[in-house]
Structure formats: C-alpha cells, structure tokens
Amino acid sequence: MKPASTADSALQARMQQAAWLLMALALLACLKLALLPALLAGLLVYELVHILAGWLLRWLPKRLLRGRFGGQAKLLAVGALTALVLAGLFASAAGLWTFYRSDAGSLPSLLQRMAEIIASLPPWLSEHLPSAPEGIHQAAIDWLREHALELQNLGKETGRGLAHVLIGMVIGAMLALQEAQTSAGGGALTQALVERARRLAEAFRGVVFAQVRISALNCLFTALYLALLLPLSGVQLPFVKSMILLTFLAGLIPVIGNLISNTVIVVVSLSHSPQAALGSLVFLVLIHKLEYFLNARIIGDRIHARAWELLLAMLLMEAAFGLAGVIAAPIVYAYVKDELRAVGVI
Fold it and tell me: Where do the structural domains in the chain lie, given as residue ranges?
C-alpha cells in the first residue's frame, strides 16, 4: 500500500505544479492580451452570485432543498440571482456612462480645466515649481491637454473594453450556474485547477470588496467636504460631481488611487484661491491618513499584507504591464501569498 500511496502523492504534487504553471500563464495572458477587464468582470459576477446565493439558500425551506426538486429549486434561485446581478451591473454601468457623457460629469472637461488652472498659476507660485530643461511646468500642461483629448476619442477602445466586460460577466454567470447545478469532481489536474481558481476568487473577494468599502467611505468624506463644507465656507468649486465620481473610481486602486484624486482636487481648488487649495490639501492629507488606517485594518487583515507590500507589488507590476499591472497587483499578490501560505513557505 505504501508504494501506491507514495505514487498518488507524487501524482498530486505534479498536478499541483502543473496547475500553478497554467494559472500563471492564464494571468500573464490576461495582462498581455488586455483581458483584465473581462477577468475582473467575471470574478465580480461570480462572487456576487456566490455570496447572495449563500444568503438566499439559507433562507429557503430546508424541505424544499432536500425534496425531489431540490436541485431545480437551487438552480432556479441561483439563476434568478444571476439575472438580478447582471441587470444591476448593466444599469450601474449605463448610469456611469451617462454621467460621464453629461456636462456635469465630463472628465475630459475636468482635465482641460486643470490644464487652464496650471497655465494661469500666479508668478509667486510658478517660481517655486521645479524647473528642468524640458520645462516641467509646460510638460504638465501639455500632458493634461493631450490626455483630455484622448479621453474624448475613446470610442473604439471603450466599445472593445465593454465587449470584453460583457463577455466576462456572462462567463462568470455561467460558472456560477454550473457550480449550482453540479458538484466538484474530475481528475487530479481538474481538481488542482479548481483549487487555484477558488484561491484566486477568494483573493479577488478579499481585495476588491474591501477596497470598495474603503473607496465608498473616502468618497463620502470627500463629498461632504466638496459639496457641504466648502460651500458653507463660501467656496464654490467647479466640477464637484466629477471630482466625487473620480474619487470613488480612483479609490478602487489601493494606495495610489487616493493620490490621483487628491491631486485633481487640490489643483481645481487653486482656481478659487491658494487658501482653498491649502485647506483642501490639509483635509485630504487627513483623509489619506485615515485610508492608511483602513487599509491596515480591512485589506491588511484580509490578505495579511502591509501598505508597503502592496506598493512594491504595484510598482513591479506597473513596470511590467503598465496600468493593468497596477490594478491587478493587489489581487495577484494576495493570491500568490495565499498559495505560499498554503504550502507552508511563509
């Protein structure tokens, strides 16, 4: 019996190594082929359905699930939830797109306004900007104007990205329905791949859902500051709705997302007065400190990672894959760390 047991253990080890290799190749392909939006959309639908189905099935009568048509009842429940999740996500995406296209939420107009503000900075402030042969001041203005034009001409890329997201959502829904209909099985390699996919989904849930909570809180505080505190102080800034939306969307990127939105708010505050910009900077620094605390308590507890670890992972993956690497870095890092922890390496 021992030789057979040893052979089975060796087979399982080889299948696990093969599954690790296939998972690494799949993640690399998603990053290289610009399929990260499809992957994230699929994981989002799958996790939402999985969580909501768990709640629903706990409330369904036990006799219904154990009866003759128990399998069909579970499948119908999960199917209805899948349809609701897809409808909710489609409605949210449509609402964001409508807001983006409107005058109140025009991000290209916001960037163009930032370029105008920087171009009209007072001399006493322009003198303190760092200088370089190529002119950092002019380079910043040109960069903002250039990217404002790019955002206005994103039709083709946006359509392609939305198609990828749609396909990813459908795949995630199909996987959720298949899990409700059948139980796990298959050979050693299939089981190893299922385990890798489960760990990746858990990493996604731990990072993304926690980051959504952090971003929502950050967005709430920023909205109170921009839409309530500043007007009460006699300061009326332009593009308040756009900056609130940008705060939420950028906040979905751990650590550096807050820096992006903070920079926009401080620059737009300069259009009113240096005092308003200084007040915005002080407020946002306090919010930034709060975000570090929330990251440590929410994300850090979920994936056992400190802020400097996430920053290092994002730095390396940005150098390798660009913006997609920054977005994927926390999820990939959490997944890799979970795999290493499972085999006792860390």
Answer: 33-181, 188-346
